[in-house]
Amino acid sequence: MQPLSKKIAQLILLCSIFTVAPQQAVAEDILLRDVRIFDGKSNKLSAPSNVLLSGNLIAQISTETITAEAGTSVIDAGGRTLMPGLIDAHFHMMMTATPLHVALNGPEGYVNLVAAREAKNALLRGFTSVRDLAGPVFSIKRGIDEGLIVGPRIWPSGAMISQTSGHGDYRQLHELPRAASDHLHYSEIIGGAAIADGADEVLKRVREQLMLGASQIKLAAGGGVSSNYDPLDVAQYTEAEFKAAVDAAENWGTYVTVHAYTPRAIQTAIKAGVKVIDHGQLIDEATAKLMAKTDTWLSIQPFLDDEDANPFPAGSENRIKQLQMTKGTENAIALAKKYKLKTAWGTDSLFDAKLTTRQGAQLAKMTRWYTPAEVLTMATSVNAQLLALSGQRSPYKGKLGVVEQGALADLLLVDGDPLANINLLATPEQSLKLIIKDGKIYKNSL
User: Fold this and answer.
1) What pLDDT sits at residue 3?
2) Residues 6+ apart with CB under 8 A from 174
């Protein structure tokens, strides 16, 4: 038997994985003096200003002196840039740093430990909110919301709903066919995926995710890169099946987003009432026109064949699909700009702990197509508009993505001007001097 002191030391080490002690245990009044503000919408910084936070809200913004009441913490920002916390509109907390074979096979406890670590890391990179688009993240979200662990606000989708042979079907061929009495696949048991065929099954699986606490629903509408048995060109689900999901989601006041690259997959989903297309790399002109006409969102990721691409083996089917998909990114963004589509930004980093550290770098990469001000607006106020589509199913009430009176106090203090040098956000360890979420300080290196 181990000595008691050794057991206590091991317990302390385990707890350190989950927590990073915030500078403030609870939200309290904070006065930030001498900041230049990027408000989440403008293309230039404000004049030197002062900002008062009260509880978890921005109470006052003024170029004039704000008097600090007794008990208010005063921080001299020294002219640094105050901006809204960043929002990643396509994240996978449970899979972002876990290798695919581990995510599919467990053990579940280990996967949760890794996810808890990545939740903390994401917040310390300046991402105060994420839209989680597949994975059993409900427990991690609850732990964050209750203060057991540290991390961003999470808008969870729960399991990605997929047809048999679809992007969320990670069974092996020897596991087919599946009889009604057969066991679920491990990915279904833990809540990472839900295989459903026909409108009735889709309806049931959607309702299950809503019962678990999903803020929006995700379906796989077409072939994927990481899945093995669905070619990229394959469209998945019928309009009737999509409609069942949309009806169930809308009954709960929320919406359906879909994983889709190709015109047929996207158009079928839109006809059924799907509100958001995630990816869309292979869209054509007609599809872009339909998205503009129906006011459908495009949630895009800067997928290129570069250092941020998942490392699939050369010559493998996954690699071939990856190359096909990444070649479409330039055209997809050009069409999005041409037709003025509502465009959100996210990373969709998967299965690699090194790639997930480049969350801010992937945001900065968007300046290949947009100005820094447009990119920062996309990752703050625009992404906040996308989160707001969850309506009453949104797990957090209040205004995000902006620095304005009455908005939630999710804020970053940047050592420099990100409008002039957006790459500052790629080095958060050095550049982010202050990280505040819900009025609480989680980093203060001033």
Assistant:
1) 47
2) none
Task: Give the separation between CA 439 and CA 31, rounded to whole angstroms.
Answer: 11
User: And the tokens for 334?
Assistant: 């050009």
pLDDT over 80 (residue 10): no
Letter for the amino acid at 85?
G
Query: What's the number of domains the chain is made of?
Result: 2
Structural domain that includes position 142: 86-393
Strand ranges, E, within 238-376:
256-260, 276-279, 297-300, 343-345
pLDDT score recorded for residue 27: 63
Indicate whether 162 belongs to any domain: yes
Query: Rounded distance, CA 203 to CA 38, Å?
Result: 43
> DSSP characters for 339-365?
TT--EEE-----S-HHHHTTHHHHHHG
Q: Give the C-alpha separation, 242 to 228, whole Å.
A: 23
Shared-domain flag, residues 252 and 325: yes
- 1 within some domain: no
Distance from C-alpha of 62 to C-alpha of 219, rounded to nearest angstrom: 45
60 and 98 part of one domain? no
- Provide the Cα torsion 188, 191, 196, 199; round to 10°: 160
Q: Read off the CATH number of the domain in which 335 is found.
A: 3.20.20.140
Same domain, 330 and 408: no
Lowest-pLDDT choice from 55-59, 310-314, 372-376: 310-314
Mean pLDDT confidence for 128-155: 97
Amino acid at 252: W
Asked whether residue 265 is domain-assigned, the answer is: yes
Both 346 and 440 in one domain: the answer is: no
Residues 69 and 90 in one domain: no
Closest CA to 131 of 156, 152, 95: 156
Mean pLDDT over residues 326-344, rounded? Answer: 97
Q: Could you give the CA distance from residue 268 to residue 109 in angstroms, rounded to a whole number?
A: 38
Bond preceding residue 3 cis, omega within 30 of 0: no
Per-residue pLDDT, 279? 97
Check whether residue 219 and residue 322 sit in a common domain: yes
Query: Does the bond joining 22 to the residue before it have cis omega, within 30 degrees of 0?
Result: no
| C-beta contacts of 428-435 below 8 A and 24+ residues apart | 428/124, 428/125, 428/126, 428/360, 429/124, 432/124, 432/125, 432/126, 433/80, 434/32, 434/75, 434/77, 435/85, 435/123, 435/124, 435/126, 435/128, 435/411
pLDDT of residue 415: 98
Domain boundary among 371, 393, 415: 393
Q: Give the CATH number of the domain where residue 422 resides.
A: 2.30.40.10
Helices (H), 67-184: 100-105, 108-124, 138-145
